[in-house]
């Protein structure tokens, strides 16, 4: 949580969240202005960076001065607890209404730091170009136990498990999956009667929705177990997932892939073939993966169990397909669709996108500075300044 990119992200958030408090802390006000000047200085070179027209010429002394300003700004901003400031959404309302009070039918009256960390983690996780650790940071700052809305709690709990998996924290993800599944099983009746996202029918209350969400938790736990070298436990969870998928009415690339894998492991080859044929015909499977599936079918027909399983491990990643299906679920979450229904919510999404774009610019700037010896020293100073 202390890597340079996260520190830049936190600094930018604190600068934005202090908009409604200007005049109350002169030191923070000054650091806020410096952060915006820093962003402007780097973005002024944006066109050559985007167009890949070559190295960006920045005078070494200018770069050293910029690096010093970054260092001084970072020290002030990072010693400020971002959650001591109004939320980003409250600051957006402040810009529109001159008040930080949130009045909207799309946001709960209890909207607070925790809600925002959760929403931002969802947004970062569903933004393909965003650094994975941005979602991880927001996950670290939030707690789904404080969320009363069952739909948001479930979607976020699932998100947290997947974010941890994506960042290679498999044991943490495994523990979070266990919490998620335990909560679901204890509250099955309530969840079945609560409108949540159903992959087939939209936002509805049904037992089918329960099994879909429960199954997603099982498959993420199975992925964790595979990474933890617990093959038997992973296979058991995959079978439980297939049972949930049947009850939840799921029939897609993930269920076919898991079905094929389970049946090959059990040496029930004939049962694996129909699922692989469906995968081979799917428009969601890439060319190389389809070629791998064709080879798999060949291996299976000659009863080479070991070769087939190795093919799965080498060329067909459960994580990749699971990622796309989980992302489809998250993008359709009510809380994210609601964001697009109010001007303040749309602005929050825009702010998130702008922060991502600016972070990408900084990366480009560091990679495209001219390379003479003096500038290279200044370049290193800029690269290291957030460490």
Describe this structure in words.
The protein has 387 residues and is an all-alpha fold. The chain has two domains: 4-101 and 342-384, no CATH class; 149-337, Alpha Horseshoe (Serine Threonine Protein Phosphatase 5, Tetratricopeptide repeat), CATH 1.25.40. Helix content is 71%, strand content 2%. The protein contains 20 helices and two strands. Strands 1-2 form a two-stranded antiparallel ribbon. It is elongated.
Q: What secondary-structure arrangement, pairings included, does this model have?
A:
Layout: H1 4-17, H2 26-43, H3 46-51, H4 60-78, H5 88-97, H6 113-125, H7 132-140, H8 150-166, H9 170-186, H10 188-192, E1 196-198, E2 202-204, H11 207-227, H12 231-247, H13 253-265, H14 269-281, H15 287-301, H16 305-315, H17 318-331, H18 334-339, H19 343-367, H20 373-384
Antiparallel strand pairs: 1-2
Helix pairs in contact: 1-2, 1-4, 2-4, 4-20, 5-19, 6-7, 6-8, 7-8, 8-9, 8-11, 9-11, 11-12, 11-17, 12-13, 13-14, 13-17, 14-15, 15-16
């Amino acid at each position: 949580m202390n890597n340079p990119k996260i520190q830049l992200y936190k600094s930018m958030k604190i600068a934005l969240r202090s908009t409604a408090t200007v005049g109350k802390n002169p030191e923070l006000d000054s650091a806020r202005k410096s952060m915006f000047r820093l962003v402007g200085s780097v973005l002024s070179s944006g066109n050559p960076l985007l167009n890949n027209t070559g190295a960006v010429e920045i005078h070494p002394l200018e770069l050293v001065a910029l690096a010093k300003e970054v260092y001084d700004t970072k020290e002030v901003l990072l010693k400020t607890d971002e959650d001591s400031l109004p939320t980003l959404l409250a600051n957006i309302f402040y810009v529109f209404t001159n008040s930080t009070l949130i009045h909207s039918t799309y946001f709960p009256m209890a909207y607070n730091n925790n809600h925002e960390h959760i929403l931002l983690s969802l947004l970062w996780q569903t933004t393909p170009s965003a650094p994975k650790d941005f979602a991880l940071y927001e996950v670290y700052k939030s707690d789904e136990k404080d969320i009363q809305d069952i739909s948001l709690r479930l979607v976020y709990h699932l998100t947290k498990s997947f974010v941890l998996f994506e960042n290679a924290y498999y044991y943490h993800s495994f523990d979070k999956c266990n919490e998620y599944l335990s909560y679901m099983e204890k509250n099955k009746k309530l969840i079945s009667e609560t409108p949540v996202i159903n992959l087939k029918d939209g936002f509805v209350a049904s037992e089918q929705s329960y099994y879909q969400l429960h199954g997603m938790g099982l498959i993420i736990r199975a992925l964790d177990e595979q990474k933890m070298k617990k093959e038997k436990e992973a296979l058991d969870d995959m079978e439980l997932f297939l049972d949930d998928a049947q009850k939840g009415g799921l029939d897609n690339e993930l269920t076919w892939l898991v079905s094929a894998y389970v049946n090959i492991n059990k040496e029930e080859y004939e049962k694996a073939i129909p699922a692989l044929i469906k995968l081979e015909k799917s428009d969601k499977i890439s060319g190389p993966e389809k070629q791998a599936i064709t080879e798999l079918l060949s291996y299976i027909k000659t009863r080479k169990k070991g070769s087939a399983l190795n093919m799965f491990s080498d060329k067909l990643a459960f994580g990749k397909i699971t990622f796309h299906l989980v992302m489809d679920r998250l993008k359709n979450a009510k809380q994210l669709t609601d964001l697009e229904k109010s001007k303040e919510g749309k602005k929050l999404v825009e702010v998130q996108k702008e922060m991502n774009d600016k972070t990408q610019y900084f990366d480009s700037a560091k990679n495209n500075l001219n390379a003479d010896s003096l500038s290279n020293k200044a370049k290193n100073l800029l690269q290291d300044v957030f460490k």
